[in-house]
Amino acid sequence: xxxxxxxxxxxxxxxxxxxxxxxxxxxxxxxxxxxxxxxxxxxxxxxxxxxxxxxxxxxxxxxxxxxxxxxxxxxxxxxxxxxxxxxxxxxxxxxxxxxxxxxxxxxxxxxxxxxxxxxxxxxxxxxxxxxxxxxxxxxxxxxxxxxxxxxxxxxxxxxxxxxxxxxxxxxxxxxxxxxxxxxxxxxxxxxxxxxxxxxxxxxxxxxxxxxxxxxx
Length: 216
Hints:
Distance between the termini: 96 Å
Number of strands: 16
CATH topology of the domain at 3-23 and 83-189: Ku70, Chain: A, Domain 2
CATH architecture of the domain at 3-23 and 83-189: Beta Barrel
Order of helices and strands: EEEEEEEEEEEEHEHEEE
Strand content: 35-45%
Largest sheet: 8 strands, mixed
Shape: extended
Helix content: 10-25%
Strand order of the largest sheet: 11-1-2-13-16-15-14-12
């Protein structure tokens, strides 16, 4: 499902896009079967009894079993009140960083493709006009990223869930005469612990002199 995302940044960068996941391959559907051929599914069991779907619910409860609505609660981290993140509607470019950061410094967890929005216009003429305006903005950003060999970084949250805000890079991609923009979401920093400084050189074994035997 495509979602709306405005891209804003320095040098007059401002255009509207939609984004959708790049990995669209479905997982293979694998069935588990018992020795008699009947289909088996992994289910939740409590005290040996199978819990049917919908028979359990997750609630916010205190130690005494009192239940609360989420809206009644406050959340804290190390004694300081924190708020849940919100899904990003405007990707504000904080700065440009070397392309190597995208490929070498961070593990990218999810990938999205950006394409120009029609700004929800109703008429075909207005739709095409909006698409071209946004496409022009995309091309301006693409040219900058490509010519300077950089990526654009900014905060990005695909959903309103959790408490830790995420970041992402926008990268220029092109295949032959086709071009586009890819948005990659940070998963974690890469920790290289075995980088080398030395230049490998196979040691040479020195020939030991042959011992001469003498009786006198």
